[in-house]
């Protein structure tokens, strides 16, 4: 994807523009990954494998996508976003029109932004998604936290007062099922209160 190319829906023609991956580095046929703008109301970009969400940018807040905070500090490109009666779409433009930048969705599902290193005359990757397991959408499921720096060899942990919904899946390093409330656990914010019949009471 090059500057000024749009992603999103033309509401007049119903044309939905999105990026798809190649089948393989050698086969330019349509692959299983896609990167598209959700036009149903959330105004965010999703990286998908088939119908399964892998990663998302978070909603557009007028300045950038909330799940990509580094977007607000970049000096290479700007994002333009439209949500009108005619279209819901976005494009990126370059701050310096003499520079070059592009977006690529690889056959392995890696979404990368490249810019030209003018000294070496080579394209270099300056940003990518999903970069680690916790970038993957729904990696650890409901009532859990994802942190690759736990040091435990598994990035998913249950929130306080919760336990893995499936110990078998958890032992196989699959946290997508998430966690459920532990029997008799105190999930109130203060130790001075207890959970009785689903409510916190002193």
From TrEMBL:
Q: Which gene encodes it?
A: VvCHDh001136_1
Q: Kindly state a single biological-process term from the GO annotations of this entry.
A: recognition of pollen
Q: Which UniProt keywords apply?
A: Disulfide bond, Kinase, Lectin, Receptor, Signal, Transferase
Keyword Disulfide bond attributed: yes
Source organism (scientific name): Vitis vinifera (Grape)
Domain S-locus glycoprotein residue range list: 55-166
Q: Which GO terms describe its molecular function?
A: carbohydrate binding; kinase activity
Asked if the record carries the keyword Kinase, the reply is yes
Instruction: State what protein this is by name.
Output: G-type lectin S-receptor-like serine/threonine-protein kinase
Q: Which domain of life is it from?
A: Eukaryota
């Amino acid at each position: 994807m090059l500057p000024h190319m749009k992603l999103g829906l033309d509401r007049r023609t119903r044309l939905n523009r999105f990026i798809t991956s190649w089948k393989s580095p050698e086969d330019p046929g349509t692959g299983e990954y896609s990167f598209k703008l959700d036009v149903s109301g959330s105004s965010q970009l999703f990286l998908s494998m088939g119908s399964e969400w892998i990663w998302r940018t978070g909603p557009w807040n007028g300045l950038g996508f909330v799940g990509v905070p580094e977007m607000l500090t970049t000096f290479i490109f700007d994002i333009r976003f439209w949500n009108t009666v005619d279209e819901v779409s976005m494009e990126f433009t370059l701050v310096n029109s003499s520079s070059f930048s592009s977006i690529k969705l690889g056959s392995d599902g890696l979404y990368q932004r490249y810019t030209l290193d003018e000294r070496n005359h080579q394209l270099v990757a300056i940003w990518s998604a999903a970069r680690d397991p916790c970038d993957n959408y729904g990696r650890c499921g409901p009532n859990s936290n994802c942190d690759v720096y736990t040091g435990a060899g598994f990035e998913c942990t249950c929130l306080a007062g919760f336990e893995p919904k499936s110990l078998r899946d958890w032992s196989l390093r699959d946290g997508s099922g998430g966690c459920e409330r532990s029997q008799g656990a105190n999930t109130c914010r203060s130790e001075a209160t207890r959970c009785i019949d689903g409510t916190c009471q002193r």
